[in-house]
C-alpha cells in the first residue's frame, strides 16, 4: 500500500475524502491525519477529524493538530458553507480517540525523515502545515513522493473571482509549497466542479443505510444546499475526495504539466494560481495540472468505498 499523510480541515468534503481514503487500506496506508485551520478553526478541525476516523472504525489512527492560523494573513473560515461546527448537518458523539501531543508539523518532519520509502501528501486544506514543515526542515522535500493538493482554479475562484478557498486562506504557504521543487499535482475547481453530487449519483449511496452513508448524506444535505444556492449547480461539488480518488484510480483523470505560480501581493487576485500553459514566462514546469475527471466512475468508486467501510 502507498504510504500517505492526509492534511485536512474537516469540513464536509474533507470528511468524505477521509471515508474514501480509509475504505481501501490495501491501497492507501494512512500514516496519520494532520489538521489545520481552514473551513473552521483548528480546535474544531482536529476534533472533527477524530470524530470521523472513529465513525470509520479507525480510532487507532494518530491525529495531529497543526497551525491555527495562516503564515501572514488573518484566518478566514467558511462556516457559511460547512456550518458553525464544520460538520453541520450531522451530530457525532464527542470523540474518544486522543489527539496526539506532538504538533502536526513535527509529526510530518519526523515521519518523512525516518521514511524508508517516499511518502505522498494529500492536502485538503490551506497549506500552512506543509509550508512550515518545509521551512523548518527543508530536508523533508526529498522524502515526499508527491503532493496532491486540492486547491486553485484555472478559471473562476470560489472565495473571490480570482481564487479558490484553500489557496486564498494561505497564499504564502502555497507559494512555499509550489516553489519547493516537490512533485506537485493540482486538483483545482475546474476539475472538482465536474464532480457534482447529483441526486442520481447519490442514489446508490442512499440505498446503503449505514451510519457512514447517513453521515455522508447528512453532510451533503447541509453543504449542498449552500453551494447549490450560490452557484446554481445541480448538487454540491465534492472537491477534496477528488484528491483521494486520484491516488486510488489516476486513470479517472486527465492532466497536463505546466508551471504554476501563486499570487501573493495583489489583493484583487490574492491566492490565484497562475498557470503558464504556453511557457510564456517559465521554460520549466512544476505542476501536474489535473483537467478532467470521469465523474460517473468517480461516484461508483465513492459508492464502493462507502459500502466497504459500512461493512467494517
Ligand atoms: C476547498 O475549500 C474548502 O471549503 C473545501 O473543504 C475544499 O478543500 C474548496 O475550495
Ligand atoms: Ca478542505
Which helices and strands, and how do they pair?
Layout: E1 2-8, H1 12-22, E2 28-35, H2 42-55, E3 63-65, H3 79-82, H4 104-114, E4 119-123, H5 128-136, E5 144-150, H6 165-169, H7 171-178, E6 184-187, H8 189-192, H9 199-206, H10 211-231, H11 239-248, E7 253-262, E8 273-276, E9 287-293, H12 295-311
Parallel strand pairs: 1-2, 1-4, 2-3, 4-5, 5-6, 6-9
Antiparallel strand pairs: 7-8, 7-9
Helix pairs in contact: 1-2, 1-10, 1-11, 1-12, 4-5, 5-7, 9-12
The protein binds beta-D-ribofuranose and calcium ion.
Pfam family, one: IU_nuc_hydro
InterPro entries: I/U_nuclsd_hydro_CS (IPR015910), Inosine/uridine_hydrolase_dom (IPR001910), IUNH (IPR023186), Ribo_hydro-like (IPR036452)
Protein name: Nucleoside hydrolase
Polypeptide structure, described:
The relative contact order is 0.16. 39% of the residues lie in helices and 18% in strands. The chain has helices spanning 12-22, 42-55, 79-82, 104-114, 128-136, 165-169, 171-178, 189-192, 199-206, 211-231, 239-248, 295-311, and strands spanning 2-8, 28-35, 63-65, 119-123, 144-150, 184-187, 253-262, 273-276, 287-293. The protein starts with a strand and ends with a helix. α1 packs parallel to α11 (239-248) and α5 crosses α7. It is built from 12 helices and 9 strands. It is of the alpha/beta class and 312 residues long. Strands 3-2-1-4-5-6-9-7-8 form a 9-stranded mixed β-sheet, with helices on both faces. Calcium ion (CA) is lined by residues 8-9, 11, 13-14, 38-39, 124-125, 240.
Amino acid at each position: 500500500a502507498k504510504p500517505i499523510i492526509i492534511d485536512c480541515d474537516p469540513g464536509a468534503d474533507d470528511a468524505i475524502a477521509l471515508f474514501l481514503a480509509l475504505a481501501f487500506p490495501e491501497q492507501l496506508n494512512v500514516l496519520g491525519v494532520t489538521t489545520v485551520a481552514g473551513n473552521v478553526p483548528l480546535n474544531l478541525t482536529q476534533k472533527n477529524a477524530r470524530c470521523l476516523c472513529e465513525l470509520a472504525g479507525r480510532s487507532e489512527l494518530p491525529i495531529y493538530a497543526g497551525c491555527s492560523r495562516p503564515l501572514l494573513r488573518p484566518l478566514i473560515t467558511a462556516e457559511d458553507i460547512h456550518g458553525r461546527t464544520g460538520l453541520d448537518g450531522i451530530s457525532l458523539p464527542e470523540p474518544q480517540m486522543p489527539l496526539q501531543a506532538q504538533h502536526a508539523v513535527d509529526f510530518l518532519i519526523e515521519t518523512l525523515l525516518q521514511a524508508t520509502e517516499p511518502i505522498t501528501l494529500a492536502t485538503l486544506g490551506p497549506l500552512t502545515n506543509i509550508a512550515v514543515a518545509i521551512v523548518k526542515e527543508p530536508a523533508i522535500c526529498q522524502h515526499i513522493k508527491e503532493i496532491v493538493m486540492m486547491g486553485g482554479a484555472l478559471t473562476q475562484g470560489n472565495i473571490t473571482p480570482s481564487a479558490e478557498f484553500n489557496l486564498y486562506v494561505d497564499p504564502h504557504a502555497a507559494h512555499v509549497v509550489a516553489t519547493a521543487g516537490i512533485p506537485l499535482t493540482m486538483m483545482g475547481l475546474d476539475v472538482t466542479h465536474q464532480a457534482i453530487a447529483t441526486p442520481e449519483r447519490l442514489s446508490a449511496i442512499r440505498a446503503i443505510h449505514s451510519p457512514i452513508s447517513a453521515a455522508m448524506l447528512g453532510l451533503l444535505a447541509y453543504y449542498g444546499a449552500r453551494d447549490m444556492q450560490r452557484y446554481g449547480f445541480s448538487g454540491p461539488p465534492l472537491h477534496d475526495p477528488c484528491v483521494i480518488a486520484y491516488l486510488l484510480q489516476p486513470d479517472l483523470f486527465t492532466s497536463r504539466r505546466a508551471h504554476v505560480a501563486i499570487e501573493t501581493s495583489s489583493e484583487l487576485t490574492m491566492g490565484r494560481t497562475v498557470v503558464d500553459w504556453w511557457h510564456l514566462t517559465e521554460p520549466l514546469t512544476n505542476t501536474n495540472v489535473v483537467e478532467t475527471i470521469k465523474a460517473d466512475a468517480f461516484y461508483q468508486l465513492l459508492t464502493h468505498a462507502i459500502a466497504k467501510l459500512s461493512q467494517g
